[in-house]
Here is the input.
Amino acid sequence: MTETTGGTTSNPWFSIWVQPRATIQQIIDTHPTRLVLLLAAVAGFSQFLDRAVMKNLGDRLEWPMIFAIAAVAGPVMGVVGLYIGGALLRWTGGWLGGRGNPEQVRAAIAWSSVPLIWALLLWIPELVLFGQDLFTSATPRLDANPLLAVALIGFGLVELTIGIWAIVVFLKCLGQVQGFSAWRALGNALLAFLILFSVILVPTLLIVGFMAWLR
Here is the structure.
């Protein structure tokens, strides 16, 4: 897919990195729903793998099984998250004067995940070098080879940089569709997060309190 930005033809898979505002504007001007669900699904797959690493899921499952589960559960989580996040951002953005409609907000969320999707390519050399150690609390392969441990730190720094830049891209894309600055977009995102956190936290506290009362 290529789009025209400022009179020149650009590919949003690349231009979103350096021209997020112009790129998302061209997308919502031409076809705001194009590839949105696919992007959300792939981003969900990526996020599932990241959570599997953080939770040491490899202590219970082999990495091919983790990838298989991620391929099924990740896309579902990604699409559901797209619609929930889009609705919350549209709602809270309205409090700040945002003008984006639901389709535009979802497009901003989905297309801003492109850096994270590109980062999936890093899994190829990581699996070759580190294998099961990526997902486990014990890391025998890394312990036996300090150079591999250094390489893992290097990959981690690259992923951290991409993750930070993906946040910047998201805020610029959200700000563009809402009609305000990236800083106000940050406020929009924080409000949405606080509401989601409250919706999860309050029932949890009530359940815990009720269970404690029953005892």
Observations:
- The first strand starts at residue 3 and ends at 5.
- The beta strands are 3-5, 8-10.
- Confidence is low (pLDDT under 50) at residues 1-7.
